[in-house]
Amino acid sequence: MQLRRGLLRALRNTGIIVIYQTPDMRVLWGQNVPVEWSDGDIFGKTDHEFLSGPMAGRIAEIKLEILSTGVPEKLEFHEGVEGGGRWYDMWIDADRSDEDEIVGVVTTMVEVTERKRREQTLRTLLREVSHRSKNLLAIIQSIATHTGRHASGIDSFIDRFRGRLHSLASSQDLVTSSNWRGAMLSELVEGQIARYREDDEEGISFEGVNVHLNPNAALHIGLALHELVVNSISHGALSQPGGRVRLTATFDGDAKDDAGSGLVLTWSEAAGAAGLPERKDFASVALERVVPMSLDGKARFEVSEERLDYRLEIPPANFEAA
Fold first, then answer.
1. 33/51 Cα distance (integer angstroms)
2. Which of 3, 107, 235, 299 has the greatest number of beta carbons closer than 10 A?
3. φ, ψ (nearest 5 deg) of residue 136
4. Rounded Cα distance, 148 and 266, in Å
5. Would strands 204-208 and 86-96 be described as parallel, antiparallel, or unpaired?
6. CB neighbours of 11 closer than 8 A, spacing ≥ 6?
């Protein structure tokens, strides 16, 4: 009796649920029984009277089978609504007398709700990572394809492709640091400009509203900014001393849907000393087709001998007002 009291006291401290039932499936005694189960008092009750959910009937069937065969079973028991409730690891075994006769059934249960929730969260995160990785690979494939089409040689391809990948990585770092929620427009602009103009704070001015871009918008707008900055440094205003570029962000009352006003980004600059290049290159493809199509938006890219003006209309689904 002293040993039994000691074992029961030790069991009470573990939180492990133990239920002993007689061959007629009625509870003889239980330890650490949840209060939710008949207020914790299940003496004399059958499984159907204190367990709930679709598994209750199945558990009763398994116990009857174990009383007949003596073969133990392990299973997972979920109590409650889908996506909630509690989870248990359950072991069911027969109790035998000294004469090896089955005289009862012992059920041992350990709650594993937190573990199950962590597993579900991890599965959700892995699916999200897989989805985003596929999207990122698709963007890289598009960049590689279009860069190759407009490159004059392998050296030109490597140089331009590397620059675009670095731009993509810079935007991706902002998205990742926010736990995949996206990036602020001002941070995205600052990051893309700083890669080339960190010692010049006056060359490019950014004015207007600041919004929080979703991950897809951050990556593609970052790519557009990269092309505009590189093009300006090579041929435009930033290729000459004192050259200035004006970037503005405004809400457009004409670009509306049920969610509200769209966002309009406008990039304006004068031509450099060497004049602006022709539009038939990856920059124009990215700015006029790839970026607006990825955002379900519109773009206007105008190049003359004296000026370059780019207007990108971004639907509300791509951002939230700061």
1. 11
2. 107
3. -65, -40
4. 28
5. unpaired
6. 18, 31, 32
Q: Max CA-CA distance within the chain? A: 103
Q: Cα–Cα distance between 97 and 103 in angstroms, integer?
A: 6
158, 161, 167, 169: CA torsion to nearest 10: -90
Q: Given this model, what pLDDT does residue 251 score?
A: 92
What percentage of the chain's residues is helix, strand, coil (to nearest 5)? 45, 30, 25
Q: How many residues does the chain have?
A: 322
Interhelix angle for 215-234 vs 154-177, to 10°?
Answer: 140
277/284 Cα distance (integer angstroms): 10
Q: Give the contacts of 132 (CB within 8 A, at least 6 positions apart).
A: 180, 215
Of the pLDDT bands very low, low, confident and very high (cuts 50, 70, 90), residue 199 is low
Pairing mode, if any, of strands 211-213 and 204-208?
unpaired
Residue 271 near residue 228, CB atoms below 8 Å: no
pTM as predicted: 0.65
